[in-house]
Amino acid sequence: MATRTQVTEPATPVDTVTEPAIPETVEGREHDPRKFVYVYNTETGKKLDRPVPETWLDGRFPQLSLTPSKKAGK
To answer: First and final CA of the chain: distance in angstroms?
Structure first.
């Protein structure tokens, strides 16, 4: 039967790490990667079923366009 070894040294405290706050807007970025939007394909005219990241509209997919909002004032 094995015997347990006893640790006699005190535990060292772990420094608390504070993460930087996420800025609401970054200069030079007009599309937020955290925001999802509904788009449609301009070549076929079909609306995509699911929202996609807003960064897809920055030129990566030129055939995608933002679906207009049906709400007044938006």
So the answer is: 73
7-57 pLDDT, tens digit per residue, is 777 777 666 667 666 666 556 667 778 889 999 999 999 999 999 998 888
Burial track 1-10 (b if 16+ CB lie within 10 A, e otherwise): eeeeeeeeee
pTM: 0.55
Identity of the residue numbered 67 = T
Distance CA 13, CA 6 (A): 19
Please, are residues 55 and 37 in contact by the beta-carbon 8 Å criterion? no
What tokens were used for 37?
């939007």
